[in-house]
């Protein structure tokens, strides 16, 4: 079962999962941690690692398998506004109020690249990594959109958003296919196309949009300040509105035909998505002010564990079969399977090279006898 992780204004990280009880689906709390001393601003998950950034100037990395703190990164001198893992999980990108973007390798958690003045010294507000892991987009206080080449580790190009009619951008997200991305600013949600390198469509809302969640390359859900959620298609001119929360929608996340939404009052809701229409499944009040959300795809980890256990079972069954055969077969078969003295791994070679290699890999008979004598001496001394 998938698990949603939410960050809160009170500094908590809370986990919830959908569970069926008495023919009713409910959100049940799975874990809680208070790793931050101030409010949590952003979260990101890749594999078993959860990274969260907050106003305490640090990035906390938690191992979701052990549910314990893995490491703490103190690479910035300001509030951490955005954290984003690459889709391969090899690197973590973080942006801060100090104006820098840091790229950290997840293997040893060492800094691999740092752009100290990524947006001219202005705060970095959002980062989004492309599905190919070859480039990333960032927006900042200088009202520019910057593209970063993650292969060469350098900036590619810069777009002045003010010239495009975009002011005070707050969020940027790629579509699942990677050809489009959305920009949230003031009353508008802009859809840009990478292939056309420009603005494709603009959605003007009656209320201030707070967050966007792509469903596919053509459909998105937009959370509003009023608590409503808009279902918007890029290829169409009209949008449908759903009354979701009483207060503003703070964050959205979509996975497996289920949309998770959270309001600033702490209300969490799960919606089933059918024909791009929302139907409420369950709701819960977290008793905290939710600021961000991410999804822990537990089914991926479970599949790996199941496959490992299946392999172990297969190996144990094969060992049993071999033992049964060895008991019923002749003595020559048993002697060929017997482990040679000092050999822990059996390696088979071609018949041509067997004589040359056997003298190197197999211990001599004299050494084996000497080991036996030493063992007997040690036992007699004891």
Q: What keywords describe this structure?
A:
382 residues, four-stranded antiparallel sheet, 17% helix, alpha+beta
At a glance:
With 382 residues, this protein is α+β, with helices and mostly antiparallel strands. The chain is built from four helices and 28 strands.
Write the layout of secondary structure elements.
Blueprint: E1 3-8, E2 13-21, E3 24-33, E4 40-46, E5 49-54, E6 59-63, E7 68-73, E8 80-85, E9 91-96, E10 101-105, E11 110-115, E12 124-129, E13 135-140, E14 144-149, E15 154-160, E16 169-174, E17 180-185, E18 188-193, E19 198-204, E20 209-214, E21 219-224, E22 228-233, E23 239-243, E24 249-255, E25 258-263, E26 267-274, E27 277-285, E28 290-296, H1 298-328, H2 331-337, H3 351-361, H4 365-381
Antiparallel strand pairs: 1-2, 1-28, 2-3, 4-5, 5-6, 6-7, 8-9, 9-10, 10-11, 12-13, 13-14, 14-15, 16-17, 17-18, 18-19, 20-21, 21-22, 22-23, 24-25, 25-26, 26-27
